[in-house]
Amino acid sequence: MTSKAAILLSSISVLAFAGCESVPSPIAPPVTAAMAKSTGRQQVDLAWLNSGRSAFVSRCAECHALPALNEHTRAQWPVIVAQMAKRSGLGPEQRENVLAYILAARGL
Ligand code: HEC
Q1: Residue 58, class by beta-carbon neighbours within 10 Å (0-12 exposed, 13-18 middle, 19+ buried)?
Q2: 103 CB less than 6 Å from ligand 1?
Q3: Ligand 1 pocket, residue 85 CB under 6 Å
Q4: Which of 93, 104, 106, 108 is deepest in the core (most CB within 10 A)?
Q5: Cα of 68 from ligand 1 centre, angstroms
Q6: pLDDT digits (tens, 9 = 90+) for 29-81
Q7: Ligand 1 centroid to 44 CA: how many Å?
């Protein structure tokens, strides 16, 4: 990559990042250390949450728009994810990761 292209790319990503910050509630916010800390097992959970987020973003928008995390309560999500995991063909591990991500990203 030429240095010009690199500069162009990095300024695009800075712009994109700044753009994201102005959105009050991103639909699938990136996994943060704070999300993992809330579960108490940081290292493992960051990997789980990241894997859950990528499955959520890629698989849960196949049939409908990606659902907003705050459209459903913490009590509703496990039921919904269980139903939707069947539709998405997610295995048990991915299903757990997706649910963990949704609950961590959703907050309290
Ligand atoms: C194969 C298609 C398909 C995939 C993949 C899919 N869904 Fe759905 N989803 C549907 C359909 C159809 C509905 C409409 C309601 C129903 O029939 O239950 C729906 C409804 C929903 C709703 C609204 C439920 C309600 O009670 O209002 C949520 C939330 C949802 N899906 C989340 C997800 C998540 C999370 C995933 C990924 C794990 C996912 N969906 C993957 C087909 C799919």
Answers
A1: exposed
A2: no
A3: yes
A4: 104
A5: 12
A6: 999 988 887 766 777 789 999 999 999 999 999 999 999 999 999 999 999 99
A7: 28
User: For residue 58, how far is its CA from the centre of ligand 1 (angstroms)?
Assistant: 13
Distance CA 32, CA 66 (A): 20
Ligand 1 centroid, distance to 78 Cα (angstroms)? 12
Which residue type, as a one-letter code, is found at position 46?
L
Residue whose Cα lies nearest atom 28 of ligand 1: it is 67
Please give the model's pTM, rounded to 2 decimal places. Answer: 0.79
Nearest residue by C-alpha to atom 3 in ligand 1: 63
d(CA 101, CA 85): 14
**Nearest Cα residue to 31 out of 107, 94, 88, 108:** 107
Phi, psi of 77 (to 5 degrees): -55, -45
Give every CB contact of residue 93 below 8 A, 6+ residues apart in sequence. none
pLDDT in tens, 20-35: 444 445 689 999 988 8
